[in-house]
Structure formats: structure tokens, C-alpha cells
């Protein structure tokens, strides 16, 4: 295992933290949730502008990088060709960056906004409930990913760095301090953010998989128990695919894309709401683009509804913590592509696929709501059960069991590719250095696979609310936001020196 290469501090400190937090959530679930809620309010309410400015700034920077001479830099040798086809590359990028959350939120997010007082302030549900899902999942989130992806790709493929860590990406700014305490703190913050992002995404969407299993097989066990069983089973599946390397991840990503778009096509063509889906989707997209700057900077200073604190700030924080794993993975598979191709291709494939999902799945159920063919808002308000509401939505489609089965398999495939990219990135953090062709030892990868699944199980067991699950990301994103800015500045400095030579 080449023990001298292993960074025991970065490996053991997060392990102790995960074990400690998991024990607290298991033994003191109510008290843990209360503390999370208080911490979330402090960061989201007091420092909300911080998250919003970083989000808008990184997006604008991505456009500048792609349009400027930085965009001509090849992530690799100047004459190097891409290793993966555009489809395989885009599939891996999209699936590693979103996980199964996209399916959970595509179905349900418009309902969360429809019952929010801020929508009444703006206008009607028809006008705005479909706009915010597109805003919260498109340009700014993918801007985070793509700016960091080209920074990491430049670091790995152009500068040939052997330390696949956040601190190494800051070396052009930090210099010799990268190898000291400053670099260690940055790497620990990155790993903590990685754990928070994984915990949030698995805790949010996995109960939907449990609900689908209950519906398909008429299992009466509690959702919490089924969720934990699913997490344990799928952890085995994900670990197996991870140990087969990029080839296994590529195959899973392609299968996931076919299933994903097959599901969208089925809902669009056979759900009976095709015209409404297309027309409302186009209208919402236009409204989102036309109001983009206003939506990006809205802070609700009088706190009349706390909408940006509850949603926009949470989402930017959520994407920040995911930036520890996904951009490293995107940067790795983008070898041979230019910076411009990586950014614009990411926006075309990543944002395009994301918007399609929200437009089709979200507007299908919203169409049934506005025509009074169903009342999903009433179902949600009755007991606050988003998962039961989503299954009620799916039951309105023809061949419901088949749709549920495809949705379950698609979610597993989504989780597999995203989980594998996370575990692979985390495993690299356990080493001081990794050569060009070196991979983390399988035992290190296995350890991270287990560690990444423990905290989500603890959060599910403690039955954390949506707000408390969001808190995990908001807290972890606060320090990591400053690191993202440092990485972006470091890339610009290093890339400028490279171009000048």
C-alpha cells in the first residue's frame, strides 16, 4: 500500500469526525437536529450575501475564461486528443455531477415553491413555480463545477502535479505555504465538505427509493429501515463499480443517460401533458434568463419570506460542497479538450440535460395541478411527505409499475456514477502524492466507500427534516467558498504565466 505515501492526517481526522457525528445522530437525534437548525440559521441568515456573491462571481468568471485567451489552453499536451467521445465524456460529467437528487427535485421542487409566500409576492404559481427550479439547477451551479474543473484539469494535465488536492490548486497563490499548515487546513476543509455533500444528497433522495420499493413489492417495513437497507446494498454495488475504475464508471454513466432520457421521453409522449410541458417550460426558461441578475442578487433584506435564505443560499452552498469531488472528476476526464470546450460543453450537456429534466418531470405534475386533474399540493400539505407525493405523481402515468422500476434503476445508476467519482477523489486525498498512472490502493478506496455511507445512514436514522439536511451543506460550504475563490485566482495567475511563456 506504500504506507509512506498515505496522508494519515487527512485520512484519520475525517474518519474520527464521521464516526463521532454518526454516534451523536444515532444516540441524540432530536438534540442533533436542533443544533443543526440553529447553526444553519446563523450562516444562512447572517452571511447570505457571501454565498450569493460567490455564486454570481464564479458564473461570470466562467464566461470570461471561455471567451478569453485562457479558453485556447489544451488540458494536456498542445496536440493531445480527447480520450473519450463527446457522448461518453458528457454522460460521465452529467451523472457524476448531479446524482439521483435531480430526479427527486425534478418531480417535487415546484410544489415547494408553490406553497412559499414569495411566489404570491411575485405573481402566480403558473408564472413562477417552474422558474426557480431552472434557476437553482442551471448556470451558477454548473459554473462552480466548470471553473474548478478547468483549474484542476490544468493542474493535473498541463502542470503535471502529483498531489490531487485542493491545496495543490492553490499553490500559485500560496507558494511554499501549500506544504505547510495552510495547505493542511484547506485539504481538511475540502474533505469535510465532501462528506457533507455526500451526506446531504444520499439523505435527501434515498428515501424515495425506499418508497418505490415499498410500492412495488408491498413491503410494510418502515421507510427508515428500508432506506438503510438500500444504502447498504447500493454501497456494495457502487464499491464494485468503483474498483473497476473509469471503464466501469463510463459504462454506468452511459446506461444511466439512456434510462434517464428514456424516462423523460415516456413522460413527455405518454403522460398526456406534452403541450403544457413544452409551452410552460419555454416560458419559464425565458423568465429565468430575463430575470437572471435579479434572481442572483435577491436577498430579501426585510425577511418578508426568507426565500433566498431557505432556497437560493442553500443551493449555492450545496453545489459548493459538491465541488470537492465532481470538478476533479470532470477535470480528469477532460484531458485533451481545450478550456473553452470543457466550459461550453459542460454548459451544453450539463445544463441542457438538467433543464430538460425539470421542464419535463416538473411541468408534467404541475400541468395536472393547474387543470385540477390532481391536487399534489394538498397531498404534500396534509403530512409534509414529499416522497409519498412523488409516488402519487408517478401513479398518474400509464404502466405505473414499469415507470417506478425504471425510476429506481435510474436512481441507482445515478448514485453509482456520482458516488464512484466522490470515493475516487476522496481516496486520492489519502495520499501525499500520486503519479500520472497511479491509482489509490483498493483498501483505501473501500475505506472511503464505507465512510461516505455511514453519515447518510445516521442522518436518515435521526429522521432529519429537509431544513436540517440543508444545514449540513450550508455549514460546510462557508469556509470552502473562500477556497473556491482562491483556486480560481490561482488558475488565472498560473494560466497567464503559461500563456506568456
TrEMBL record:
One GO CC annotation:
plasma membrane
- Coiled-coil zones: none
What name goes with this protein?
BCCT family transporter
Q: Where in the cell is it found?
A: Cell membrane
Q: How does it sit in the membrane?
A: Multi-pass membrane protein
The Gene Ontology terms for molecular function here are:
transmembrane transporter activity
Q: Which Pfam families match?
A: BCCT
Query: What family does the entry list?
Result: Belongs to the BCCT transporter (TC 2.A.15) family.
Spell out the PANTHER family in the cross-references. Answer: HIGH-AFFINITY CHOLINE TRANSPORT PROTEIN (PTHR30047:SF7), HIGH-AFFINITY CHOLINE TRANSPORT PROTEIN-RELATED (PTHR30047)
Reading the lineage from the top rank, the first entry is Bacteria
Instruction: Give the keywords, sorted.
Output: Cell membrane, Membrane, Transmembrane, Transmembrane helix, Transport
Where is this protein primarily located?
A: membrane
Write out the transmembrane intervals: 7-28, 48-66, 86-107, 134-156, 185-205, 225-243, 255-278, 313-330, 342-361, 443-462, 474-492
